[in-house]
Amino acid sequence: MKFNSLQKPTSRREILRGSAVLAGSAFLAYLFPATLLRASAVGYAQQAPSPAELLASMRAKFNAVPMETQKLADNVTMFDGPGGAVTVLHGPDGKFVVDTFVAPAWPKLQEALGGLGNAPLKYVINTHWHFDHTDNNAHLHAAGATVLAHENSKKDMSEPHDLPVLYRGADGALASLHFDPSPAEALPQQTFAASYELHANGETLRLQHVPPAHTDSDIYIHYENANVIQMGDLFFNGMYPYIDPGTGGSIDGMIAAAGKILSLADNQTKIVAGHGPLGNKADLAKSREMLITSRERIQKLKSAGKSALEAVGEKPFADLDALWGQGIINSDQFVPIVYLTL
Ligand SMILES: [Zn+2]
């Protein structure tokens, strides 16, 4: 019996998966969830990290970025680093926090918030459902905050999802990153469908949902008096953005969202990107131009009948890489992302 169990019968499905992966190029990793690749790796199981291990390594990578503090206004402070940018509106009415860093950065975030005075935590706002923006929801809620987000953030966090091409292993192979549903204590307690306003500490925070762009749950936060707009992952400053085809992301939506913020901003507006340094209107305009160029080139290849793999092989962003391909996402990831969302 024990000997037999070592020779597990291989189903036709497993053979198909296995041969596809063994015969195919690394590009299969772009389009197949990590779980599928793992299932196919008969005999290689010990080499394939589990989805939990992949996610832990992604969290560790984000957490390794040092935190920097920048004052955006008398009562608005930005903490930038371990999982993107967090802003805080602070004052006698309490602290209003936007985004949360990754889970391992909680002690750093807790200490940073403590440095902004003793007023109570009131709200934490999620710009969208992704882990690097929501990971510390439960901690912040336990510390007294109400978690506020678009209704799709709650929906997306409640479901399992696979995010294509997000993970890049040490060998350069790309895979999807798998997410299990978030525990109940991490979900937003309060949601809205279109827009929401908060008034505190002499400031008005306007929260506005946009049509599907980076995900289907994106909002931007406009600090109206401070002239600050926080875009979450609607803006990756100085680098190719990630766009999440698994929850409705679309390059057209990214271009439209950038256009919307450009129409709201003036030359003094501080624009907080989800990833990358603090930006301004000129930075966002340049990013939007890059998105438009990328979209045109991939649409041309797709319309000509090229597969996503062939589109990668064409190296259509070779002239853009020096400027835009040095961040979180390189062009081997960005080409299939754009392709998948067109
Ligand atoms: Zn995101």
Condensed summary:
With 342 residues, this protein is an alpha/beta fold. Helices cover 37% and strands 21% of the residues.
Secondary structure blueprint with pairings:
Layout (H helix, E strand, L loop, with lengths): L1 H5 L5 H12 L4 H4 L2 H7 L10 H13 L4 E6 L2 E6 L2 E6 L5 E4 L7 H9 L6 E5 L5 H4 L2 H6 L3 E5 H7 L3 E8 L5 E6 L10 E3 L2 E6 L2 E7 L9 E5 L4 E3 L20 H14 L5 E3 L8 H23 L4 H6 L7 H4 L6 H11 L1
Parallel strand pairs: 4-5, 5-6, 6-9, 13-14
Antiparallel strand pairs: 1-2, 2-3, 3-4, 7-8, 10-11, 11-12, 12-13
Helix pairs in contact: 2-4, 10-11
Bound molecules: zinc ion.
Zinc ion binds next to loops.
Strand order of the largest sheet: 1-2-3-4-5-6-9
- The stretches of 5 or more residues where confidence is low (pLDDT under 50) are 1-46
Principal-axes geometry comes out as globular
Mean pLDDT: 87
The percent of residues in helical segments reads 25-40%
Q: How much β-strand is present in the residues?
A: 15-25%
**Number of helices, counting only DSSP H or I runs of 4 residues or more:** 14
